Amino acid sequence: MENQNYRPEHIFDIASSIQKQLQQSIHEIQDVHERTHVLSINARIEAARSGVHGLGFKIVADEFGNLNNEIAQISRTLGESISNETQILMELSDGMAKQVRGDRLSQISLSIMDVVDRNLYERTCDVRWWATDSSVVEALEQPGEQKENFASKRLAVILDAYTVYLDLFLVNKDGCIVANGRPEHFFVKGKTIKDESWFKEAMSSPNGQEYSFTSTHQSELLNGQEVLIYGCRVDNEETTGKAPLGALGIYFNWKSLGEAVLEKISTIDLHDDIKVLRLKTESRIIDETGKILASSEKGESGKILSNKNLNKILDSNSMGHFLTHIDDTIQITAFGYSPGFETYATGWYGIITQTIKNNS
Predict the structure, then answer these.
(1) How far apart are CA 286 and CA 337, in angstroms?
(2) Which parts pass through the membrane (predicted)?
(3) What pLDDT, on a 0 to 100 scale, did the predictor assign at position 263?
């Protein structure tokens, strides 16, 4: 038999089809039974009219009637047995199909976070590497237009090669931005950001091997674009182990990753080829508080995920799925927890919800 790319839901469909075909066959048997029953009655009537000469015909008619009754009993027993067994088979197959589908969606949810963790791990490497660039260090060691402009040009070169960033900010120890890589787009030089969490954390870190982080938010400095910020202290030989010269902040374009990952997920055949089962599929990334960081649904970013299983999800550091009955549908909520990569893990969750028709 050629591979038809069967899915678990096909078992339910096949069982349902068998049940219908058998019921049709039983109806046909019952129809034959009714006709033979009428024939048996007519035979008895004719035998009675024939008197003594019809006795032999009566024996045949009686036997015909007995046989007809046996057929009727077999038909009823077969119908009841087949109906019960196929119903059990349909229920088992439906449950198995939901389990398989939930497991698959959970694996995909985990894959979402694997991609995110691996990608953002690279960001932590970038900021620690670029904070040691000589032009960055010298701009803070020797403040002035010449060094600061040179640092800005160097940051621009980096941005040209790493297009996932919106801008890079070089900030002195007082929290004043002295250079950025996109001065033609973002006029931030001279502005003070000493109260931003990434800057304070970077300045208080013990060494350049550490990094600071600010989660997704809309940055006023970058015209309201959604960013993740990674920061690292900037040192020279004299400040190592002491107060840093300042800090470098890299403003990552979160939309370019979050939406891209979810869009890629949407191209996966989440619905198999059984269109009658599919009603809706949604995918999201949430943080450890349940806040939506990215969503396939417009206008959800920044809101808390509305799902009755949210607390159960946040209490789990693995993957899994839940089934929720909603009217005549089943909502499968699958999740995968941040697996981490190397020394980095976001601690976030990939969430896929799929609503399908309830066959049970």
Answers:
(1) 10
(2) none
(3) 86
Q: If we measure between CA atoms, which residue out of 127, 115, 107 comes closest to residue 341? A: 115
Two structure tokens written together for 165:
């960033």
295: pLDDT strictly greater than 50: yes
What confidence tens digit (pLDDT) does each residue in 145-176 have? 999 999 999 999 999 999 999 999 999 999 99
Give 9-94's CATH code, choosing from 1.10.3720.10, 1.10.287.950, 3.40.630.10, 2.40.50.100: 1.10.287.950
Q: Which residue, 101, 80, 106, 89, is CA-closest to 7?
A: 101
CB 192 within 8 A of CB 176: yes
SS3 assignment, position 207? coil
Rounded CA Rg of the chain:
36
How far does Cα 101 stand from its chain's mean position? Answer: 12
DSSP state at residue 305: P
Given the candidates 3.30.420.40, 3.30.460.80, 3.20.19.10, 3.30.450.20, the CATH classification of the domain at 131-254 is 3.30.450.20
